[in-house]
Design goal:
This protein is of the alpha/beta class. It has nine helices and 15 strands. The protein has a nine-stranded mixed sheet. The model has no long low-confidence stretch (mean pLDDT 94). The structure holds nicotinamide-adenine-dinucleotide.
Length: 387
């Protein structure tokens, strides 16, 4: 029997330095590790070079598990390392601003988890630093890259549902529904974090902006039901760890959107859901059934609209799904993170940036909408937005 040695992967290496080895550190590492074999046509392979975390034992364990070559407890070691091409900030919200700005100054390409920053002022500083930097920037709004959401974007942009009148977006979880759960066990009360509107409402607001249009005014009501969970956040008008909100957004082009964000939605695990209505048709989708886009579209020859039909957005003909599994074998939450980071890294190697990739400008604009909703909740006014 002859055994032939497999050739080494000769593709260009992109060296990744990552801050944070918790939930998102694991998720982004998983994305980088899957790229070389899911995308053999990509011109690069990510190399997991250095991981930064706070707890020494956990850091050592996770560096080994994810395949990082080195680790450090100081993020400055990462952003100043001349070998690092891409700095990936998966740290807690309050740790987004300084490391990301320093990495941009050092000429790195920078990935930063949402929310871009805890305060609007810091989000603006990050947006400005990104605009002045030579590296590329990504604010992680991963749900843009669920294949069903990519298809919805295509359908809306092609005019098939006509003029969009209304959208309804919710991001609902139940993490805080039980009053006896102590603050340190609910994710939105762990850091000076500013709560659920920023933590998951930011994704819903991004879906409004991405799928329908820019936000021109906001009004809303924001609530914290368990005061002991409210961790005051920095500078931004006394925002606190909110647990639920309901908002009305007026959009460029005349559409209106209702946005709900909740961590007291008993029974909901991770329910990002929307419905968009236009003059010729409607679309609906939710993350608990990520492969199905429901579309109500005019059928040639039909006398009237026939209601919603389910499209299984799996298989080769769909952007994002094509490289994964045969039809019906399903692509979900994990995959949208892989697709997003892949498209961003392609731009880091000199390809044009995929317009679906959210930038620090997008992160800043979402922060501006959140600040407007909070202000409206405090004052009762409808707040106009200028970016
Ligand atoms: N896009 C998404 O799907 C999604 C989902 C969850 C969380 N997030 C966001 O991702 C980010 C990380 O959230 P998470 O759930 O992974 O948090 P986590 O608590 O699980 O992990 C945070 C990590 O940061 C490290 N860390 C904290 N302070 C540090 C310091 N001073 N120096 C070095 N390391 C430090 C911790 O050791 C930990 O490894 C947050 O901004 C969060 O809002 C995004």
């Amino acid at each position: 029997m002859t055994v032939t040695k497999a050739p080494l992967d000769q593709r260009r290496q992109l060296n990744v330095g990552m801050l944070g080895c918790g939930f998102m550190g694991k998720c982004h590492s998983n994305a980088f590790r899957k790229m070389p074999y899911i995308y053999p046509g990509a011109s690069f392979v990510p190399r997991l070079l250095v991981l930064c975390g706070r707890d020494e034992a956990k850091l050592r364990r996770e560096a080994l598990r994810y395949g990082f070559e080195e680790h450090t407890a100081d993020w400055r070691d990462v952003v100043r390392d001349p070998r690092v091409d891409v700095f990936d900030n998966c740290g807690p919200d309050p740790l987004h601003v300084e490391p990301s700005i320093e990495a941009l100054k050092q000429g790195k390409h920078v990935i930063c988890e949402k929310p871009l920053a805890v305060s609007l002022q810091d989000a603006r500083r990050m947006r400005d630093a990104a605009a002045a930097a030579k590296g590329r920037n990504l604010c992680v709004f991963n749900y843009r890259f669920v294949p069903a959401v990519l298809l919805a974007k295509e359908i809306i942009a092609s005019g098939q549902i006509g003029q969009v009148y209304q959208a309804r977006m919710s991001y609902l979880q139940e993490a805080g529904h039980d009053p006896s759960t102590p603050p340190e066990q609910v994710w939105y009360a762990r850091w000076p974090h500013s709560g659920v509107l920023q933590g998951i409402g930011s994704h819903a607001i991004d879906q409004v902006r991405y799928l329908v249009g820019e936000v021109r005014s906001a009004s809303g009501a924001v609530r914290t039901y368990r005061p002991e969970r409210a961790v005051a956040s920095a500078s931004d008008g006394g925002a606190e760890a909110d647990e639920a909100s309901a908002s009305v957004l007026e959009l460029e082009g005349g559409a209106i959107a209702v946005v709900e964000a909740s961590a007291v939605a008993t029974g909901r695990k991770n329910f990002l859901a929307w419905e968009i209505h236009g003059s010729r048709g409607s679309l609906r989708w939710d993350l608990e059934h990520p492969n199905s886009l429901f579309a109500c579209l005019p059928r040639p020859g039909a006398a009237r609209l026939e209601g919603f039909a389910e499209i299984s957005v799996t298989g080769r003909e769909y952007s994002g799904a094509a490289e994964w599994w045969p039809p019906g074998h399903n692509v979900g939450w994990e995959h949208c993170h892989v697709i997003e980071k892949l498209r961003f890294l392609e731009a880091c190697t000199g390809s044009p940036m995929d317009p679906a990739v959210a930038t620090f400008e997008d992160g800043y604009r979402v922060a501006a909408v959140i600040a407007a909703i909070r202000r409206s909740s405090r004052t009762g006014e409808r707040v106009a937005l200028e970016y």
